[in-house]
Amino acid sequence: MDLQIDDFHKDVASALLALYQAFPRRIALYIDDLMPPEPVDEFGLPSKRHQSCIAALLWLADEGYLRYETTVHFEALDQAVLTEKAFLRLAGPTLPPAQLPDELTPSLRRLRGSLARQLRVALAESQGEELTRLVRQLLGAGASA
Question: How many domains does the chain have?
Fold first, then answer.
């Protein structure tokens, strides 16, 4: 089983949502805010899970979803911010208007139908398959996965 891929999807969603929530401010994006803290090994190195989380953030930067100034050891990305590509994808719709209640105002329909909102709900409700689908949608510019 590829459990590291499920963790990757959680890390991507958590990181991008944290940056979306702060947008357009630059923030320090701490690994311990994205996943439960894990003890370091006998040599003082972070766990494989912790290393995978920071690697996911660096991958997002390499792929143009976020920018940052520097890493803070294995603990954080400093001065991190979403790129235009990531912001537009997160703010964009993922739910068709027909799936949203008619009584909502246009601004609430836009917010509730956004990819950011759907990712937040999937994370909060531990909906693994839905989270996977949404992260793939985000990374694939809307391509179905």
Answer: 1
